[in-house]
Amino acid sequence: MDQLAVPEGYFTSGAMEDWGLVTYREAYLFYYGNATTITYKQYMNTIVSHEFSHQWFGDLVSPLWWSYIWLNEGFATYFEFKTVEVMEPTWEMMEQFIIKSSQYAMISDSSATTRHMNQDAQTPTAISGLFDRVAYDKAGAVIHQLETIVTYDNFMNGLNIYLNNKSFGNAQPSDLYNGIQAAVDASGYRIADDLTVAEIMETWTENAGYPVLTVERNYNDGSVNFSQSRFILRSSANVTTSNLWFIPINTATRSNYNFQNFNIEFFLTEQNAVKNLNLVPGEWLLVNKGERGYYRVNYDERNWRLLTDYLNSNDYSQISKTSRAQLIDDSFNLARSGRLRYEIPLNLMSLFSRDTDYIPYYAFLTDLDYVDTVLTATDQYDDFKVFNGFLPSACTRRLPLKATGCRKQENRTGRSYFMENLSSLIITNLGR
Ligand SMILES: [Zn+2]
Q: What range(s) does the ERAP1-like C-terminal domain occupy (predicted)?
């Protein structure tokens, strides 16, 4: 494989994945040991991984038509994180995938006018328009969800079948589903509720947007009512919300949690369903562990309070960092859409009197940007700035805020790597 750096000004794209020869802007390929920051080094790695992924997804197998461009860009987005994670596990790339790709996709995909994944296009302008956040980040998130549903080994074996069957040819989504289904069947694995890959995936590719799962507990008999509707940020938008998604669900409770096990327990395939989970009234329930399912979760207020109390205790880290980021991001966006009182996410913020992990902090500061924007021209903005100044106090006490050379950073442990990233995030926030 050849890689070519093109001088600045001669290349409008960031990089291009021609077969056997990948071209880049100089800035995306040249690494200077004494000048390139660790954050930028990670960024360069993701670009190289993205373009290399296209050697299979795009070059070896090309989509039948532009409407399926997500078969290229979705996989390239997924593997730009997955491949770097294998090369440098301390960077926790798949955790970063949740906050930087999945949650990022959910912002624009919650508009009333977002498109579905297989949308057709016939003119050059319309085709260019398909290279959007749906084709890249949403498709990457839906692919990650599929990996979780069928398990990683079946997913990778299925991709092998798909790529071998369609080598030097064109593919459409059903070819992908057939390949993964063949791997699932060959392994003897049973997808929850005996659904097929195609049945599940078609609800995610043909419906525009994504759902919010509402979880309402019956504290007398331990059962839970699960219901779904499309999540649209502006609740005033006049949009039909009768679409159904096949939503993969797994759960954790205070006394029974394993945030390393992502097995799907059941699917919600109807508008709503009641499940008897025999929950203990005083224990929190968390759904969609690690936010591997591409949807938001809302709870009844009592369960939100149970989660908040736990996150405000010394046990907070028993809930995984991606799920802490999920609770923060979901609650802020649910409040923003009018589905939840702002009191809930504001109380959840007490987490950050203890939590100094980069993953939840990144999600939080991203969500805070919106609050900042809304309050900018109001009388409350001075109060917000005071509040904002207090925010990082718990973190800054423990952070290495001194400027340090890149070489020194490279010798550090993965933990320090995230501390460097968090330092930069906090300093940016202080500059509001
Ligand atoms: Zn690409």
A: 284-391
Ordered domains of the chain (ranges, CATH): 2-206 (1.10.390.10), 211-375 (2.60.40.1910)
CB atoms within 10 A of CB 159: 20
Query: Is 202 an active-site residue?
Result: no
| Interval between CA 52 and ligand 1 midpoint (Å) | 9
| β-pair partners for 287 | 251
Question: What are the φ/ψ torsions at residue 333 (nearest 5 degrees)?
Answer: -75, -30
How far apart are the CA of 17 and the centre of ligand 1, in A? 8
Which residue among 8, 17, 51, 92 is the active-site one?
51
Pairing, β 211-217 against β 223-230: antiparallel
Q: With contact defined as beta carbons under 8 Å apart, do 249 and 287 qualify?
A: yes
3-state secondary structure 232-257: CCCCCCCCCCCCCCCEEECEEECCEC
- Residue 193 and residue 195: Cα distance in Å, rounded? 6
Give the distance (Å) from ligand 1 centre to CA of residue 329.
27
**Residue 8 pLDDT:** 86
